[in-house]
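Chain and conformation:
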Amino acid sequence: MGSQIVREVFGGLPPEYLAYSFVGAPGTAKMSSSRGGAATPLDALHVVEAPVLRWLYTRRKPNQAITVSLDHEVGRLYDEWDALGRKAGGRATPWETATQARSVRTAEREPTQTPRPFPFRSLASVLDVTGGRDEQVLRILRDMAPEEPVADLDAARPRLDRARAWVEEYADEADRTRVRETPDAERLAALTDDERESLRLLVAGFDALGGDWTLDALTDLVYGVPKQRLGLPLDLKKPTPAHRPARACSCWSTSLLTGRDTGPRLPTLLLAIGPDRARALLDPARPA
């Protein structure tokens, strides 16, 4: 009707039609200026860094719907953004390069970016396990990158603040991590012989690490225990027959630490609670 009026009443040419779709969040109404009750970009900016949110728009055609997911999927969004940043050195396609460029600058200024963009999921796990205590968070972030330790938490901002907001506002309370105060004597007594031997190797590995209580070292240790049990080389990469035992070992070890089979990755959890508390919960018979 509008085009007809332009042509027949005003004798002009109507503007080119541009089809567009809507922006929404899972389980909610589409964003709309005429109706309330829907998520807004300001809501998303509490959790998503400005360049990442802009990228959600720039990588879509106008007629493609955009879903701003603030549940656990937000971690995957950050992972994809970080992967694009790693490709920007030469492996990115022209389209990827263009969408990233539009995301990190505007006509007036560049949105703030995090100097040291630690993985969002890792930040959320660290904040969850430590209760958000700044001194503990800083200690763990330094251990996560010992080759280039961060000087202060500002190096991880604003992503750190977005992860904190996500943990406080969006993380399901049932999924929050609570580290046990005392060993789970019943669960320890119910371990199978295989589980008990794997636990012995894991705790023995704590001693071998010494002061190298870092995320990389703990990851090698956690995935190395099942390989030791199967007689496989420790430097053998996935996929290997040790992959499934490693996952099972992580599950019941996490259960011993938190009372739940799910939670942060076991290396991240061990890094957060430190060697003394890990030994106390996993090897209570050993004197402190």
Remarks:
- Strands lie at 23-24, 66-67.
